[in-house]
Design a protein that fits this description.
disordered C terminus; globular; mainly beta; 10 strands
């Protein structure tokens, strides 16, 4: 599915080929079918589904896989983003607060 987002700074963008995402008040984790993905902090989903709503210019569309490859090349972290497994967390959270089962965050799957 395509997932559109907006940051707290007002930046809008779209990721393609997202299998599902976890969102909480601090940001959102985007994942592929292998439960690999990344967290983008201070970002909130505005649309998730096929196609797009038209609010995001094509120039602001990125492949999730391309973003993950770039993060790997930069030692897994950059600009508040972090490659993760299925337990999405932000870099500031302690390991005690990580929720591996998703019980404290919404889980959205494309159905």
């Amino acid at each position: 599915m395509n997932v559109e987002y907006i940051t707290t700074d007002g930046e809008r963008g779209r990721y393609t080929d997202v299998s599902y995402f976890h969102q909480d008040r601090d940001g959102v984790g985007f994942f592929n079918g292998a439960d690999l993905g990344f967290v983008q902090e201070d970002t909130f989903v505005t649309y998730a589904g096929p196609g797009h709503t038209g609010d995001v210019p094509a120039a602001d569309e990125e492949s999730m896989e391309d973003v993950m490859a770039e993060l790997r090349a930069k030692e897994h972290t950059t600009d508040g983003m972090l490659i993760v497994g299925s337990g999405a967390h932000s870099p500031e959270e302690s390991s005690e607060n990580e929720m591996q089962d998703g019980s404290s965050i919404e889980k959205h799957r494309d159905q």
